[in-house]
Structures are given as C-alpha cells and as structure tokens.
Amino acid sequence: MGLDLLDWRRRVADLYAAIRAEPDPARGHALWRRTRDELFATHPESPGPGPIPVAPYDPAWRAEVALEPAATAELRVETGTDGTVVFDRIGVLRTPWGPLDAWWLRQYGGGLWVPVKDTSPRTYGAGRYLLDTVKGADLGGTAGRLVLDLNFLYAPSCAHDPAWACPLAPPGNVLDLPVEAGELDGGAPPGR
Q1: CA distance between the termini of the chain
Q2: What is the pLDDT of residue 70?
Q3: Are strands 98-105 and 112-116 parallel, antiparallel or unpaired?
Q4: In a 10 Å sphere around its CB, with 0-12 CB exposed, 13-18 middle and 19+ buried, how is residue 1 labelled?
Q5: φ and ψ at 86, to 5 degrees?
Q6: Rounded distance between C-alpha atoms, residue 2 and residue 4, angstroms
Q7: What is the pTM of this model?
Q8: Which of 170, 174, 157, 190 lies closest to 76, judged by CA?
Q9: Three-state DSSP class for 10?
Q10: How far is CA 147 from the centre of its chain?
C-alpha cells in the first residue's frame, strides 16, 4: 500500500486534469477509457481486473449545471474499513435527467461527491460515482457551474472487490431512468 496508493491517486488526478484540458469531450473520454484500462490491468492498487466495459461516448449525457441551494442534510455511512464516513449536502444539481444532491465529505481534506443510481440492469445497482474530488474525479466547470458528464460514471471500488468499502448513492441521487453511459456491468450489489 503506501506509495502504491499515492501513485494510484496521482495517476487518477493527472488523468482528470488531462480530461479537463482536452477541448473535445469524446477525446477526453477515450483517454479516460484507455488510462483506466491500463491502471486496472497493471497497477498494484487496482480494485479489479481490466479492461472495464464502458459505453461509447454520447454527448447527450453531458451538461454544465449550477449548484443550487438546498436544505442541509447529513449522510452518515458506516463502513467496515473506514468507520463512519460523514457527508453534508451542500446543494442540488438540476440536470436534464433529474436532480442530484451534491455532498461534501466532512472528514479531513473534504471533497465533493456526486453518486448516481439509475434503473439500468447493465450498471452497478447500488450506484456509480460521477464526481469524487477526494479521489481526483472532477470534470471541471465555469462560472459557478459544474460539468456533469454521465459518460464518465464509474462503479466504486467495492463493485470490483468486496475488500473495499464504498459509500453508495442515497435517495437524492437516484435517477428514474436507465443511464447506459459510462462504466457498464460494474458488478452486482448483494442480493441483486
């Protein structure tokens, strides 16, 4: 662990920086796919084997939206490895596909977290991550708006390896439609 985990996080942060710098979202998505496949196939901190099935890029799943105020809420997630992970709802993102709550990790370092659960049978049933800035997953934005591109949805590490503990999508992060974009067939939650 240790330096391997540091290297993993650096590579992921560098990947998302390159995606934000790429003016063509489809080329950024192709880079994301190639780099993740390489990391999953070769890196000692990989949560699973690669390559990972990912849907082709579809620009209809991309939007830039403002973070709107919303009633505050606290989300406490008990995990087997990290103890209690606490998030605070900091607002809502009104996307073309439905509203999504935006959460801030309260622990040291903080970070924006936007999980998404959808109705597709081809995605991880407990939800995927769209933004997770504590891990470097940030697609950017301008003038107080965030880029939300569902083509970059990925299953959390626990979908690939039960040794990992992952916060899963709460009720305010459920879309009532199938989102067959991003990582597909990312595993199945218990009982699915």
Answers
A1: 31
A2: 93
A3: antiparallel
A4: exposed
A5: -115, 130
A6: 5
A7: 0.91
A8: 170
A9: helix
A10: 13
| Predicted pLDDT at 65 | 97
The one-letter amino acid code at 87 reads F
User: Which is it for the CA torsion 23, 25, 31, 36, positive or negative?
Assistant: positive
168 CB contacts (<8 Å, ≥6 apart)? 77, 115, 117, 126, 127, 156, 189
For the chain, strand residue ranges (E) read: 62-68, 74-79, 83-95, 98-105, 112-116, 128-132, 145-149
Per DSSP, 57 falls in state P
**Residue the block writes with tokens 């607002």:** 91
Give, as one character, the DSSP assignment of residue 140: -
Q: Which two tokens stand for residue 68?
A: 């709107």
For 173, the token pair is 């992060």
pLDDT digits (tens, 9 = 90+) for 30-69: 999 999 999 999 999 898 887 889 999 999 999 999 999 9
| Residue 97 half-sphere exposure toward CB, CA atoms < 13 A | 24
| Residue 191 confidence (pLDDT) above 70 | no
